[in-house]
Design brief:
Layout (H helix, E strand, L loop, with lengths): L2 H14 L15 H35 L7 H21 L6 H8 E5 L5 E5 L1 H19 L1
Antiparallel strand pairs: 1-2
Amino acid sequence: MCGQKKWMTRNLKVEEDNQLGQVIKGPWETNPRAKEVEEIQAELARNLAEDLTQELIVHMIQMCHNNKIAVDNEKFIQDIGIVIEFTRGLVYRALQMEYPTQDIVDTFVNVSTSEDGEKHTEVDIYNFSKYVELFQSDDEGDEE
């Protein structure tokens, strides 16, 4: 037999065996390897984000040091800590990953476009400082 006759014969055999139309019911087990692959991909993305963040921050600190800014000063270290977190949020967002500082940026930073098409950021520093005061007053209330 050749061509279409061959297939017609096969279909007849299936119908004769009453297997046509039978459905195997699940639930199907999830493939553990697929989950492992997703976890590995997520870990690689996090590692890339951390490496990029570190490169940016190291470069910034080196530039500060080269310009005679005391990078070992306690206040500098405190300031750079928050810069690191916001830089990490920037890099994570660029890689389509979430990071907690993104909510702060979304809340207090607006991007506007001027008439000539240039984009500018506006930080709502007034409301940001009000939130800081609110958190500080909550902390003081917790200590009592």
